[in-house]
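Q: What structure does this chain adopt?
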Amino acid sequence: MKTKITTFGLLLFMAVSATVFNGCKGKDGAPGAEGPKGADGNANVVGTTSATISSWTLGGGILYSASLTSTAITQAIVDKGVIMVYEDDGSGGWYALPYTLAIESSSFGFGYASGGFVNIYITNTDGSTPSHPGTRTYRIVAITSRGMEAHPEVDVKNYAQVKQAFNLKD
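A:
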């Protein structure tokens, strides 16, 4: 089968090619306004939330849980950012959840969902009923994906590093 290119076909091909490769070209518009910065001057951290929990629910006899909310937890953060929960150790330091204490054989963890929900739970690693957790203070930090790209060296399990890198206020 022979292919025959007509003058009309060639002109049509050239016109379409010119449109495709040059048709989307135009003058650049004026630069847009600078976007808003976060409350602390850092747009990489959407927010931090601190809360003290003294009311825990025992579920199934094997775990204590409590719920917190944070407006910083958006779908974009859930999809591409980082959400960290830290527990006050009582002496000015913070433990990143999840962690396990071998002495108590207790495991401390959390789960989250868009809409700002954070569920903190405490279980015993052997499946027995844990002791009532008492009053504990937590800090939730939501970091954008851009924030993590800007600070890849930060160990998010170390609250002091996170606080310094993202200029967080207590």
